[in-house]
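=== Structure Prediction Worksheet ===
Name of assembly: unnamed complex
Input type: mixed (protein and possibly other molecules)
Chain count: two
Listed entries:
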Amino acid sequence: MFELLGIPPQALFGQVLLGLINGSFYAMLSLGLAVIFGLLNIINFTHGAQYMMGAFVAWMALNYLGLNYWVALVISPLVVGATGIVIERFLLKRLSHLDHLYGLLLTFGLALIIQGLFRNQYGSSGLPYQIPPQLAGGHNLGFMFLPNYRGWVVIASLVVCLATWFMIEKTRLGAYLRAATENPTLTQAFGINVPLLVTLTYGFGVALAALAGVLAAPIYSVNPNMGADLIIVVFAVVVIGGMGSILGSIITGFSLGLVEGLTKVFYPEASATVIFIIMVLVLLVKPAGLFGRTA
Amino acid sequence: MADVTSAEAPAAGLGISETSKGTERLHRAIMIGLAVALVTAPFVAYPVFVMKVLCFGLFALAFNLLLGYGGLLSFGHAAYFGMASYVSAYTAKHWGLTPELAILSGTVIAGLLGALFGSLAIRRQGIYFAMITLALAQMVFFFSLQTPRFTGGEDGIQAVPRGKLFGLFSLADDRALYWLVAVIFMGGLLLIYRIIHSPFGEVCKAIRDNEPRAISLGYRANQYKLAVFVLSATLAGLAGATKAIVFQLASLTDVHWSMSGEVVLMTLVGGLGTVFGPIAGALVIVAMQNYLATLGAWVTVIQGCIFVICVLLFREGIVGVIAKAIRRPL
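=== Predicted Assembly ===
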């Protein structure tokens, strides 16, 4: 077996794959944050809790209703997205005329409530979720062993991210969305129901987080705290990429996951902080973010 | 942009000059009242509880200096509070520093950390500022987690000696320690009051309310922002360093993001952008934690509910509502 810089290729590619998986979660979550921020002008602190809810709804669907992974993949984003719509209609809407920092505080409070409730109900040790039988096992690619499920997560999230990009940049609905982001008053004057668009956008961003949660469930255990620390990393990803560009969020998410994976191989001590360090460097060199418009 | 209080600021909405004679007299009376309350408190309440309120009160006052008067929402103030707590505990325990020197060294380190993080964070505004401060604080958390030789890892630094003040007066007794904490708290409050009502404070408020205008008048907004950030971080450090001596403990809780959230909550409950609000907020939240300690994880849920209710219905906070009722800024 050959070695690369003293690291066995199995370990190297294994971490690269894990990095890509984390990167796909970063990409999906920061994409949702960016879409929500564009239209609602709030940073959705509840995003991590909603990612966790996505995983839990999948777990509940399996254990209480006997619905398998593939059904959960559809149901969970719908259910969590619906709760998001309720939150937008009854809570966030009341803050739309205020400074956007109040939105941050409100969603932080909601995250505390949701995480606290799940911790009370299910403890914080985490619940197992089986890999669906269709995706069990893996392939030996010669230089590494590729578990099927992990390959599926990377491809699925890439497809979802690109579909979102296509929808926002290339379709009529996306054009409405971009128009409303640019100038809500004028868009409304053209006869487009902007408040409905706002509600649906929040629901969509939340559903994206829930979908990431379902994908994550078989890899990490289903845990009430799974979103709490992740969301802070995603914030750093958002600062690095800037929220101006959809494609930028996707690229930043995947590449930072990859960098994190490589750091785990070559300098494991820094793997938890490498994204924050990159954030510092980006702030020093290009304060508006890699893909950001000048603030 | 970052004018979190401009639309909602109790002082701004009242149309009363903040420097009117009556207001000054009222503030002086409140200060004297607070001093009297501090002197009598250890005789009517459990001193350790009062000291906890004072430490968190000072922490919230420092946070409010930045948010209420600088218009900058930091979501990472636990970094300065917790790092100062670690430095103070470490120097007191392993270097044998006297408590006043341990507290001083913790405060200085927090100030330096504030200068470093502040100069990075002020490069972006509004929502990004909050996210950057949070991310930087998370970096401090991981640093603390990964350097158990310094922080004691999951165990924290336990059994920190309270030592002898100036090497002379033993602080082992709660009452003795209480007077030191009370003096530190009152000193911090007076300093913050002085900062807010100084020409420097006026410029900070101007930048908070309308940054482009302040810049066009020739003020270097970024230097003012950095200065108020460093002051806030230093005072938060003073609170954290004192807390480590009081509870003889510095732990990961002090640097965790939930601590950053708690200080936001205290300030919000008490009254954002009011001089005395954070003290009231700290009293309410610390008392609540004490009485509800047996409920475990429900405390998080309750805190979350208070957040939501405050943001939706009670944005002025306790002291803000009182200030509105008596039509004077507090």
